Task: structure prediction
Amino acid sequence: MGYMTVGNTGSEFHIDYMAIGNQFNIAARLEQIAKSDEILVSQRTYSKSRDVATIEEAGAVHLKGMHSSVTIFRVLFKKF
Result:
């Protein structure tokens, strides 16, 4: 797992609820590159969900803002 900061930020005149952090950025980038019928996850999510879903490795990609490539996985379907 990675660290994220979640909560309200701003002033009394304008408040936003935000999530920031490396893991949040990876999730947002994977959402951007996924096709409309596709779910992509990182290694960390794969390791936590491989027992409840059928998942295949989809290769390594370089995501904007990341120093090194990220191995991604495609969720095929939920196991029953």
Summary: The chain has two helices and five strands.
